[in-house]
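Dear Dr. L.,

I hope this message finds you well. Following up on our conversation about the binding site, I have prepared a predicted three-dimensional model of the protein together with zinc ion. For your records, I am including the exact sequence and ligand specification that went into the calculation, followed by the structure tokens. Please feel free to forward this to your student if that is useful.
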Amino acid sequence: MPDSQRTTPWHIILLFLVVVAGGALAWWGATGSSRAQIEVGAACTQCGYAGKIMVGPTPSSEPWPRECPKCHQKHYYFAQRCPACGKLIPMKDPEADKFGSPRSCPWCKSRALNT
Ligand SMILES: [Zn+2]
Ligand SMILES: [Zn+2]
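The resulting structure of the complex is given below.
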């Protein structure tokens, strides 16, 4: 069967391509995971909306604030849970509209976050 003999090399090439593509994907997956986006808590200082947002692996080095999904104003900050009341605290500089540490929890006034 000359036809099948002629097509055999193509099967090998195809298999080779699949292996290379699979290896490249595995490599990309392994190295790309460090740049992967992570989901963090976020809260709006304007309307009080608390939700989540996808950001880079280092939330503190991301540009803040983002646009709030509820009121669509740029007051949406990376947020951490208050150790005292458990609510999300927007990580906003108390003096400026940028990322920072609030002096106290805006909900229960606890200062446990900064200890
Ligand atoms: Zn808002
Ligand atoms: Zn609190």
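In brief: The longest strand covers residues 38-44.

With kind regards,
A. P.
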